[in-house]
Amino acid sequence: MINAIDKPAIFITPDYVIHAVNQPYRDTYQDDVITGQSRCHQISHRNTVPCDQAGESCPLAECQQSGRATTVVHNHKTQHGDSYCDILMKPVHDEDGMVLGYLEILERIQYASSQAGKGKLIGNAPSFRQMLQQISRAAPADIAVLLQGETGSGKELVAQAIHDSSKRSKEAFVVIECTGLTETLFESELFGYEKGAFTGASTSKKGLIDAADGGTVFFDEIGDVPLSMQVKLLRLLETGSYRPVGSLKQRKSNFRLVCATHKNLKEMVEKGLFRQDLYYRIAGFPILLPSLRQRREDIAELCHHFLIQTGHADKNFTRETLLLLSRYSFPGNIRELRNIVEQSALLSVDELITPADLPMHLSVQNTAGEPEFTPHLKTLDEAEASYLSDIAATYDGTPESLAEVLGVSTRTLYRKLQRYGLTLRKR
Ligand SMILES: Nc1ncnc2c1ncn2[C@@H]1O[C@H](COP(=O)(O)OP(=O)(O)OP(=O)(O)O)[C@@H](O)[C@H]1O
């Protein structure tokens, strides 16, 4: 059975011992597996103890507890260095329904990494990993995804990652920037036009929707589409058909929809600024992107990443500089951090980037009494509480849909909310 799977796969017993392994698994991990002896955590994490004793959730334990298949994103030590893997763990039963062991299938997540310079999306914080898990769930399906997050938090990068790991990845990824689109521009840009449709239309032109046929359309800042255009957008999304300006013929386009916004669309719906029907059409699978403030522990690695990306790989931030950065609020999120890194690298006279090289509003922060930069580490409970608190305040869907996205039962969700004294935002 294992050999018929084209992804890395193993069969393990409840004591974590690997009893069968396929070739893709052997090709992925550096350490040799001795079947009947090696344990999964030794091979994938080089840990002597199971993952749940080393600060990560253990899919085997979860699977044992629930008796059902479970999924989790882990950071594994592979031939390619540290690599995020999307893990599927399934119980395997004998003819009498007794559990024989567990089948673990792994899929490497190519678009993200915990290490600078190794992927497009860099991060390691719990909220970042939660996001990766949601991306991995949503990407292979054709469901409409709504990305919600502050400006500069990586929405476009995530949209691209969803496209790249979908079955449409070989087709076009078309970005439509909705901010500032007038009604005329909206129609001509999206749907195209026929020759002579309006003054200046000396030739016909295909629209972006046509270019996206077979691929993905990313509507950035969907909350900025004025009400008058929302109805046209809804018709396009409902039927997949549209009419180029000046044409009598309907055309069809088959695309996957990903939208992004930094606005609270649900609140806009309540105020009558955004159509409810359009909202439900675009919010098939909402994903909340953490702000940089919610993942401060990633700042040091992101700094390193941007030094490499901007051609300053030979430079380093001093601990004091990292400390100042770790205490800043980053209203512009990762985009702002990237700009700060590039600017301060250019200003530094040698390979060490010091507080004096930071923009003024950062370098004047008082760091007295804070001797060393230490990454902002949280306990797992604190991380869960802060993640749930953010979600509880902003999630727009039903408790059932939220529980499904989070991969827990509705009862578990309510139990956790109660534990941290949280209530879901009123819908
Ligand atoms: N996790 C990440 N790792 C590395 N770079 C990132 C990450 N997230 C975002 N970036 C970088 O930060 C910048 C801003 O990202 P992006 O444009 O995707 O944000 P956005 O949320 O779409 O912004 P806006 O709301 O302004 O449209 C880009 O340069 C992007 O490459």
Automatic annotation (TrEMBL):
Database matches in SMART domains: AAA
Sigma-54 factor interaction domain ranges (all copies): 121-346
Superkingdom of the organism of origin: Bacteria
Pfam families xrefs: AAA_lid_14 (PF25601), HTH_8 (PF02954), PAS_4 (PF08448), Sigma54_activat (PF00158)
Annotated Gene3D superfamilies: 1.10.8.60, Homeodomain-like (1.10.10.60), P-loop containing nucleotide triphosphate hydrolases (3.40.50.300)
GO molecular function annotation: ATP binding; sequence-specific DNA binding
Keywords in alphabetical order: ATP-binding, DNA-binding, Nucleotide-binding, Transcription, Transcription regulation
SUPFAM superfamilies for this protein: Homeodomain-like, P-loop containing nucleoside triphosphate hydrolases
PROSITE patterns (alphabetical): SIGMA54_INTERACT_1, SIGMA54_INTERACT_2, SIGMA54_INTERACT_3, SIGMA54_INTERACT_4
GO biological process, one term: regulation of DNA-templated transcription
PANTHER family (alphabetical): PTS-DEPENDENT DIHYDROXYACETONE KINASE OPERON REGULATORY PROTEIN-RELATED, TRANSCRIPTIONAL REGULATORY PROTEIN
Protein known as: Fis family transcriptional regulator
Biological classification of the source: Bacteria, Pseudomonadati, Pseudomonadota, Gammaproteobacteria, Alteromonadales
